[in-house]
Design a protein that fits this description.
The chain is an alpha/beta fold and 320 residues long. It folds into two domains: 7-155, Rossmann fold; 183-310, Elongation Factor Tu (Ef-tu), domain 3. The protein is 28% helix and 24% strand. It has nine helices and twelve strands. The strands form two sheets. Strands 1-4-3-2-5-6 form a six-stranded parallel beta sheet, with helices on both faces. The chain has a six-stranded antiparallel beta sheet with strand order 7-12-9-10-11-8. Strand 5, helix 5 (138-145) and strand 6 (151-155) form a beta-alpha-beta unit. The chain is elongated.
Length: 320
């Protein structure tokens, strides 16, 4: 494709008209199942020399309709955008989802897509349903686009040896602290980004200084405990680390935090954005009789984390 790629819009009507392969969905996590659909869309687009347009929603529908029971997103909207581009999108349309939008019929929605076409191909999953009362099934989409020459491609759910590729399944793995399995289903690491803030600085006094980040409010929370991780700061490669999530019962310093100890790295990180990628859960949170006992356990944790990371390189996803 020779036209400008990696464009983001918030209204379908703002997308310049051009032949397109379109796929639609929430794409939370952009897991391996999503990647399969994107790869197929990319293949169809490349064969015709046209673009891939991904239509998605922010907030996610579950955030609007099930706010009390929804555990949280797998990726932020910004991270989802990066992943969609990395896995094949040329244009991402992020529609503001609301209860009012949920009343839009499949007929109306498809008409909006066709207006920015030609809509050469439409790629969706077998369980896909669009519009009010989920009336826009794959068969209905074929009916709605038949007069426009659109080819509707329907994909069965792709299950890998690592597990069922669904966003719901990945959220459950994260909640249970099963970071390694979540990575296998995602095809990349679950990660958390945030500004490094000042903590109680107890870790520094026992030889394990940490960069502290408040848990993001909208992401699904990982189980408390110690993890082998990679840490990324602007201007540096991914750095091996171990990360604690919890309320620090051993020192009783209050609110839940994400505290990352970077191996073989010493710099002032306050105010910088730290991205922590979770590789493997090492142990549950625990209380200790004193700082000496905590220090001894952290030393053992570091040995175990280094061993894990030696056989688990960073799963970097770069945006073209």
């Amino acid at each position: 494709m020779t036209s400008v790629a990696n464009q983001v819009y918030t209204n379908i009507e703002d997308v310049p008209a051009a032949p397109s392969v379109v796929t639609i969905g929430a794409f939370d996590g952009v897991h391996r199942g999503h990647q399969h659909v994107l790869a197929c869309a990319r293949q169809h687009a490349d064969a015709q020399g046209i673009r891939v347009v991904v239509v998605t929603f922010d907030p996610l529908p579950a955030q609007v309709f099930q706010p009390s029971s929804f555990p949280g997103r797998i990726v932020t909207n910004a991270r989802r955008r990066e992943l969609l581009f990395a896995y094949g999108a040329d244009v991402v349309v992020e529609l503001l989802f609301s209860r009012e939008m949920a009343l839009v019929t499949a007929d109306e929605f498809v008409a909006r897509l066709i207006d920015v076409g030609p809509l050469n191909d439409l790629c969706v999953g077998r369980d896909f349903a669009l519009g009010h009362n989920r009336e826009g099934t794959p068969d209905r989409l074929r009916e709605l686009t038949a007069d426009h020459g659109t080819r509707v491609h329907v994909f069965d759910r792709v299950d890998f040896a690592c597990g069922n590729t669904s966003s719901t399944g990945v959220r459950q793995l994260i909640l249970e602290g099963r970071a390694e399995e979540a990575s296998q289903v995602l095809g990349h690491r679950f990660q958390v980004s945030g500004e490094v803030v000042q903590g109680a600085q107890i870790g520094r006094t026992i030889g394990f200084p940490t960069a502290n980040v408040a848990p993001p409010q909208d992401l699904v929370p990982l189980q408390d405990g110690i993890y082998a991780t990679y840490a990324k700061i602007a201007g540096h490669d991914a750095l091996p680390a171990m990360t604690y999530i919890g309320t620090r019962p051993a020192v009783n310093t209050g609110s839940r935090m994400i505290e990352t100890h970077l191996f073989d790295f010493d710099a002032d990180l306050y105010g910088k954005i730290l991205t922590t990628s979770f590789v493997q859960h090492l142990r549950q949170d625990a209380d200790f009789a004193g700082l000496d006992a905590l220090k001894s356990q952290l030393a053992r944790d570091e040995i175990q984390a280094r061993d894990v990371l030696a056989s688990h390189p960073p799963m970097l996803v770069t945006v073209p």
